[in-house]
Amino acid sequence: MKLIVQIPCLNEEATLPETLRAIPRTIPGLDAVEVLVIDDGSSDATSRVAREHGADHVVRFTRRKGLAAGFMAGLDACLRLGADIIVNTDADAQYAGSEIPRLIAPILKGEADMVIGDREVGQVEHFSWPKRRLQTVGSWVVRKVSGTSVPDATSGFRALNREAALRINIVSEFTYTLESIIQAGKKKMAVTHLPISSRHTRPSRLFSSTWDYVKRSTATILRIYAMYEPFKVFVLIGSALTAAGLVLGLRYAWFWLQGAAMRAAHLQSAILSVLLLILGFQTLQWGIMADLIASNRKLLEDLLYRARKGELEKDARG
Predict the structure, then answer these.
(1) What residues form DSSP beta bridges with 144?
(2) What is the pLDDT of residue 251?
(3) Other CB atoms closer than 10 Å to residue 50's CB: what's the count?
């Protein structure tokens, strides 16, 4: 059994040594523990510092690609290196390396495919009140969308077994945290969580302001939910448009019965009713088409999983 701890980095030469020192190199139940650093086009000496302080592997981008791309590149590299379990952690020492044995315990016991470290954000003192509330609300939304029970959806401290890593396909360019949980829930993976300790570090480099974070996270959630539940999304929108069109149509029918003068005065209601009904029916049709496309996407994802797994098994055989 091999564990690889992957650490996405962007200009982390100052904090990376502490993070690397905290990672335990022997854990009961594992034969090997290795560290992979993903350098997301850093302009400082992150890659050199990683090698000097014990990183076993370094993947470096020549230009910045973003956290989601770094996460996926890390998973791919870990799988090719033979990882049975992958732990993702931040380079700023926010998460304690000593928590890794606890984090992977449910996977070693065969009880989970993915484990999320819960910072218990509602009680984190170094988070501002608005941030605590937003994190709580955002995690609630992700739980409802994904069908999981994860209370801290934005935690970057998480563990995956090999099968989960093979099935995760991040398409967002913003972050992997929300999308990976939604995908795991929709693909019926066993997802669990456990409380962890965390400490205050530098401000996040992922977003420029709280509003920017809320805006981009909301867009990510809506996009991924629509990807996996397109029929529900389009039926909801189409039904709302159709209902509004029917209400306006009934309103105009009432005025039509009142005589020619009332008909002429409220003709705009009839026009708007027809437009809404047309849009409603078209949206319902789009829902059927999107559902068929989603079925094809599931088949393609299964083929991709089989292709990746077969390729890795072939590489392992030499």
Answers:
(1) none
(2) 86
(3) 29
Among 27, 54, 55, 22, which Cα is nearest to 39's? Answer: 55
90: left (phi over 0), alpha (psi -120 to 50) or beta: beta
* Closest to 59 measured CA to CA, from 75, 307, 22: 75
Q: Give which of 156, 118, 148 is closest to 136, Cα–Cα.
A: 118
What is the model's pLDDT at position 8?
Answer: 94
Ranges of the chain with pLDDT below 50: none
Q: In whole angstroms, how far apart are CA 259 and each of 1, 103, 216? A: 82, 73, 52
Rounded CA separation 51/183 (Å): 33
β-pairing, 114-118 vs 158-161, is: antiparallel
C-alpha to C-alpha distance for 163 and 175, rounded to whole angstroms: 21
Q: Which two tokens stand for residue 92?
A: 């700023």
pLDDT, tens digit, 9 for 90 and up, residues 284-293: 999 999 989 8
Name the CA radius of gyration of the chain, rounded: 24
Express each pLDDT in 89-111 by its tens digit: 999 888 999 999 999 999 999 99
Could you tell me if 6 and 79 are in contact, meaning their C-beta atoms sit under 8 angstroms apart? no
Buried b (16+ CB within 10 A) or exposed e, 253-279: eebeeeeeeebeebeebbebbeebbeb
Closest to 65 (Cα-Cα) out of 38, 86, 41: 41
> What strands lie across the sheet with 32-39, from one edge to the other?
57-60, 32-39, 2-9, 85-88, 158-161, 114-118, 191-195
Q: How far is CA 60 from the centre of its chain?
A: 22
What pLDDT score does 220 carry? 78
Backbone angles phi, psi at 307, to 5 degrees: -65, -45
